[in-house]
Every structure is written in C-alpha cells, then in structure tokens.
Amino acid sequence: MTNSELLKKVQRIAIKSKGLSSQLFSGGYQSAFKGKGMSFSEVRLYYPGDDVRAIDWNVTARTGEPFIKVFEEERENTVMLLVDVSGSAVFGSHTQFKAEYLTEICAVLAYSAIANNDKVGVMLFSDQIELYIPPKKGRQHIMRIIREVLNVQPKGRKTELGKALKYIHNGIKKRCICFVLSDFLAEGYEEALRVLARQHDCIGIHCWDQLEKELPDVGVLRVADAETGEQIWVDTTSITLRRQYWRSFEEHTASTQTLFRKAGADFLSVGTHQPYTKALLKFFSNRSHTVSHG
C-alpha cells in the first residue's frame, strides 16, 4: 500500500482501538494485570511492632540503631506483544486478513496498557525475528507499533515460535506480561513456552479464519500452503473430507490450549469473524476474578 493509504489505515485503527481500549480498561484490564509485586523504597528506623524480618542488618550494624527496609508495590508493568507475521498470518476470507485483525488486537492491548501507565514493546516474528521494538510509553509509540505491524514485509514465511519465545526470555529479565498472537501453526516450542511462562506472565491469543475451520463445498479446489507454497487439489464435495478438516482444526486448537495450560500460561481463541473485544472482556473478567480470589 502507498504511504497515504498506510497512514489512513493506521489512523483508522488507532481511533477505533483507542475507543475500544476504554471498554477493556474499565472491563478488567487493570485488575487482571496488577503490579509485579513489591520493590525496595527506603530504610527507616525500627519501631516496636515492626516485622523483625524487615530489619536491614547492614545499616543497623553501621549506625548502631535498628533500621528496617520499606517496600512499596510496583504498579508499572511491562507488556510485550509477540506477533506472528509468517505466511499464514496474511490469510483471510472474511472481512479482514488475520494480519489486520491481529494489528487491531495489538493496538487495543497497547492503549489499555498505557492507560494503566504500563510500557509496551513489540516483537514481530516468522521463522526469524523480523523486528523488535523495546518497551516504551506514549501514544506516538503505539502509532509506530500499529504502523510496523500493518506494514511489515517479513523475510521468512514459516513459523519458529520457539525461537521467538527464547529471544524474549533472553532479552527481558524483569517479569513482564507477554501476549503471544499467532495461529500457532508451529511445532517444538513446548519447552521454550514452559521456560518463558515460569518467568513471565504469558497469554496466548489464537487467531484464526473461518475458512481454516470449515471447508466450503465448492467442488474440486486447488489450495496452497501459505507458509510452504505447496499446492494440492482437494474435492470439497466430500463430506468425509470436510469433517476431517473441521476435526483437525478442533484438535489443533484443543492441543494448543492444553499445551499452554500445562506450561502455566493462559490461552484464548478468537476467529476473525468474531468481535475480539467480547473475547478479551470475558478473559479479563475471568482473570480479575482469579487474581482477586488467588
């Protein structure tokens, strides 16, 4: 697309996402993702009744008077958006391609994050790391994220999710919130996900198109794999074939969800024909309930 077309699309998504993010923020984002815990603030004199476990023995020995460490809650989070931009991500049969759908979800999450005073970063990946934007705050930063996700020209076509997860694990040491947006048509990433989820708060967002779930009856059709380019002829009039196609999708979704749950990560699945705000609101609401009762 031209620069003017890109700018218009970025602005359209930004306006739409900013409005929707207010729904998500009031609908549970803030309570679903509380601060990372407690951080050191200062030392002060010990008073009777203070927890003796908080005594700073180094300062106490140096001054000759008992001092304790004071901690405060860390309210600021870091949010990382890991976005699959492989060949299958450009697929689309409904009103928009998965790529644009993922961009809107990224934008909504990013606006919700900065409303909570969180920093947001993004990593675009295929079978290689296509782009890494370090976490920052600010609306101009979000506009850049939208622009980059929309306009990415990936060098790779396949998906190496394990490589992307390892990159984040090695690059970000402080605990952060990782949203992994993909169709998860990848293999061999189980261990990398488990390791990442042990250190960070991981949420997988499974994005899919209706045509990937239900094969239409349109006669003999030549189809191509979006990532490998391999082409085959299929007879879509076959009820057995269409049932196998549907079953394969359902099994992949279920196995991916199980994989995330076993790793200690969250997972939600949403189709491009569905309003993602509804799915996200439900997810945040359930998470808020879990956090408040955890």
Number of helices: 8
* Uncertain residue segments: none
Biggest sheet: strands, sense, closure?
Answer: 6 strands, mixed
Report Rg.
23 Å
Give the rounded overall mean pLDDT.
84
Instruction: Please list the strands of the largest sheet in the order they lie side by side.
Output: 5-4-3-6-7-10
Walk me through the structure.
The chain has 294 residues and is of the alpha/beta class. The chain folds into 2 domains: 3-34 and 77-293, Rossmann fold; 37-74, no CATH class. It is built from 8 helices and 10 strands. Strands 5-4-3-6-7-10 form a 6-stranded mixed β-sheet, sandwiched between helices. Strands 1-2 form a two-stranded antiparallel sheet. A two-stranded antiparallel ribbon has the order 8-9. Helix 1 packs parallel to helix 8 (276-293). The radius of gyration is 23 Å and the shape is elongated.
Write the topology of this structure.
Blueprint: H1 3-32, E1 37-45, H2 57-63, E2 67-74, E3 78-84, H3 98-115, E4 119-125, E5 129-136, H4 139-151, H5 161-171, E6 177-182, H6 190-199, E7 201-208, E8 220-224, E9 231-235, H7 239-262, E10 266-271, H8 276-293
Helix pairs in contact: 1-3, 1-4, 1-8, 3-4, 5-6
Question: How would you summarize what this structure contains?
Answer:
With 294 residues, the protein is α/β, with parallel strands linked by helices.
What keyword list fits this structure?
single chain, 294 residues, alpha/beta, Rossmann fold, 2 domains, six-stranded mixed β-sheet, two-stranded antiparallel ribbon, 10 strands, 23% strand
